[in-house]
Write a structure and sequence with these properties.
Blueprint lengths: L3 E5 L5 H10 L3 E8 L8 E7 L6 E7 L5 E3 L8 H12 L2 E3 L48 E5 L11 E7 L2 E8 L7 H4 L5 H9 L6 H16 L5 H29 L3 H22 L8 E2 L2 E2 L8 H20 L2 H7 L7 H7 L4 H4 L7 H4 L20 H25 L16 E8 L2 E9 L5 E7 L1 H8 L12 H8 L3 H4 L2
Parallel strand pairs: 1-4, 5-6
Antiparallel strand pairs: 2-3, 3-4, 7-8, 8-9, 10-11, 12-13, 13-14
Length: 496
């Protein structure tokens, strides 16, 4: 697979390999299962990063049907959710897992075959019966249990959150997501690659460019395709426009949770102006239909874009100054939901969440794609790890995106927009992007007809929802929604 150092491992060699990776400063990124031969057992893939500008490490572990593999969750905790996901969806057994509970398939869901097995039809309805979920036992009569969700007020996505608390103090917090899991990875099976771009754009509505770009780059890597320079620059412009409207929405929603209504209205007004600019530039407020295989599907209408961005940036500076002078807002953010640096690393935090805890990582800079080797981004960093630090990283990233776009619009090269792409039969590729929420990976496998056999999506919200509970314990109930908003994760991006 492109950009990786691949190595075949036996199951009993996984723990030693993982320990050696961590000792050398590396970090696991994701794990998934696929079935290269439908009649045989699964093949597990583990993806790890070894440092900036260094190839990713890819481990391949072939299993017989029914064979168990040692769990790595005790060595690299962030793999815990990936292993549970593989158990639920691919039927892989992990020995010694510290959390051997359902994750994606809730209690009572009993499919006749694991959903990601090739033998299971993509559109087969999953039958489920009511069943009790596992809840940690509580012995004290003073501890209260609050099940919050899955239906919540306003337009929040579906998720249930269990709080064990005394008074206002939260003792234990347990999220339950995947109420509306859409089976997007299964939906890619047997689809022509050109249609896969359309599916990728719809995995997460607010990450259309990032998902389409990661998917396209995986296919381009599999085909050995060189994307034209102008197309690579246009991809960066679209990606940074997407980052801007996402971060503006984030700031407005964060004000909503601190009850700063004027701040909420102003942040969402700026978001609306950014989306209107997107529509003028691309024809889509969410920038859909821009990225295509081999380049971009059409040129962007950039006339007047520089002036519009300058005006929007001036409004951002005014808005930022007002937020920084509003003590009732700042008081609710500072020291709320602290995430220590080591916890952020161990549990797999990504994007602004990890950078707010002192982890200096960004795929645009560390593993450049599109035109980020030429248009190098400024990567803001904070050390405090609290809700305020997470907000400040996003504000600083907004300024960095405006500066990068000004450069891109001023120096945009001419040239073709795309080249033909013919993915070969049986190929595979890895693509990645740094979304507004963090690192996104697409691992793509093609069958003998050149159609999609397996598409694995590592989404940033899947990673950050895994991390979030570690900021909840010993906090108070009144700060919950503020803390959740400070992460900026989406449930749809997790429940892909």
């Amino acid at each position: 697979m492109n950009g990786t150092l691949a190595k075949d491992l036996a199951p009993d060699g996984l723990k030693d390999a993982c320990r050696a990776l961590l000792a050398g400063g590396g970090r696991m990124q994701m794990a998934y299962a696929w079935f290269p031969n439908p009649a045989s057992g699964p093949e597990l893939r583990y993806l790890a990063s070894s440092g900036a500008r260094r190839p990713f490490t890819l481990w391949r572990v072939r299993l017989a049907n029914g064979e168990a593999v040692p769990s790595l969750a005790g060595v690299s905790p962030l793999l815990g959710w990936y292993e549970r996901e593989m158990t639920d969806l691919a039927g892989v057994r992990f020995a010694g897992h510290p959390e051997p509970y359902r994750l994606v398939l809730h209690e009572g869901a009993e499919p006749e075959a694991p959903p990601l097995r090739p033998s299971r039809a993509p559109q087969r309805t999953l039958v489920a019966q009511p069943a009790e979920r596992w809840i940690p036992p509580v012995e004290s009569s003073q501890v209260q249990l609050l099940p919050f969700g899955p239906v919540r007020a306003d337009v929040f996505e579906s998720g249930q959150f269990l709080f064990h608390y005394i008074g206002e103090r939260i003792l234990h917090y347990q999220p339950r997501l995947f109420f509306k899991h859409r089976g997007m990875e299964k939906r890619f099976e047997s689809v022509a690659p050109v249609l896969g771009v359309i599916l990728a754009e719809r995995v997460s509505g607010v990450g259309s460019v990032a998902h389409a770009l990661a998917f396209a780059q995986a296919l381009e890597a599999a085909a050995g395709c060189e994307v034209p320079r102008r197309a690579r620059w246009l991809r960066v412009i679209a990606a940074e426009l997407e980052r801007i409207y996402n971060h503006l929405h984030y700031l407005g929603h964060l004000c909503h949770t601190t009850t700063l209504k004027v701040g909420e209205a102003e942040g969402k007004l700026l978001e609306e102006r950014a989306k209107q600019l997107n529509a003028l530039v691309s024809g889509s407020r969410f920038l859909r239909g821009v990225v295509g295989l081999g380049g971009v599907r059409r040129d962007l209408n950039l006339e007047g874009a520089a002036d519009a961005l300058n005006s929007l940036r001036a409004e951002l500076e005014r808005y930022e100054a007002l937020l920084e002078r509003t003590h009732s807002h700042l008081d609710r953010l500072i020291t709320t939901g602290p995430l220590p640096r080591q916890t952020a690393f161990d549990q797999g935090a990504t994007g602004p969440v990890e950078r707010a805890s002192g982890l200096d990582r960004d795929l645009r800079r560390d593993h450049p794609y599109a035109a980020y080797d030429e248009l190098q981004p400024v990567v803001p960093l904070r050390e405090e790890g609290d809700a305020y630090a997470r907000a400040r990283v996003r504000i600083d990233e907004l300024h960095a995106s405006f500066g990068l776009l000004a450069h891109a619009l001023r120096e945009l090269p001419s040239g073709p927009l795309a080249v033909p792409l013919e993915p070969g039969a049986g190929g595979e590729g890895l693509g990645w992007t740094e979304t507004p929420r963090g690192s996104l990976y697409y691992a793509v496998h093609l069958d003998e007809r050149g159609r999609l056999a397996r598409v694995k999506i590592k989404s940033p919200s899947f990673s950050n929802w895994r991390v979030f509970p570690h900021t909840m314990h010993d906090t108070n109930m009144m700060d919950y929604l503020i803390n959740e908003a400070s992460f900026g994760s989406t449930i749809a991006g997790c429940d892909r």
